[in-house]
Amino acid sequence: MVYDKLRGLVEELEKLGKQLSNAQSTYDGVMNKLTLGQGNLIRQAHSFVELGVKVKKPLPKSIREQAGIDGDEVAE
Q1: For the chain, what percentages of helix, strand and coil (3-state, to nearest 5) are there?
Q2: Out of 9, 40, 47, 69, which residue is the most buried by the measure of CB atoms under 10 Å away?
Q3: C-alpha to C-alpha distance for 19 and 25, rounded to whole angstroms
Q4: Which long-range contacts (CB under 8 A, 24 or more apart) does 34-38 make?
Q5: Average pLDDT in the 9-22 region?
Q6: Best CA proximity match to 74, nearest among 31, 51, 8, 23
Q7: pTM for the whole thing?
Q8: Domains: count for the chain
Q9: Under 8 Å CB-to-CB from 69, ≥6 apart: which residues?
Q10: 76 found inside a domain
Q11: How many CA atoms lie within 13 A of 11 on its CB side?
Q12: Can you give the C-alpha Rg of the chain in angstroms?
């Protein structure tokens, strides 16, 4: 019956929505650990560059900016 198929589709869409929300929440938590606070991981890694450690490729400008690092400090 069409109604039953529609109900099943709606249930699956609700399930998918919850999974997407959970994935977004996990992503946000990880990004916060990387970029927020004075001791964030991106800032700590960047301090090595400031001390003269050579890197093959800088971290993306967008992530440096999220971590509060001036995007112009590392030449891209």
Answers
A1: 65, 0, 35
A2: 69
A3: 10
A4: 34/63, 34/66, 34/67, 35/63, 35/66, 35/67, 35/68, 36/67
A5: 98
A6: 51
A7: 0.69
A8: 1
A9: 42, 43, 46
A10: no
A11: 6
A12: 21
- Domain assignment of residue 14, yes or no: yes
Cβ–Cβ < 8 Å for 75, 55 = no
CA distance 28 to 52: 31
Across the range 27-51, mean pLDDT stands at 92
Nearby residues of 63 by Cβ (< 8 Å), 6 or more positions away: 34, 35, 42
- What distance in Å separates the CA atoms of residue 62 and residue 35, rounded to the nearest whole number? 11
Residue 73 placed within a domain: no
Tell me which residue range forms the domain holding 57. Answer: 2-66
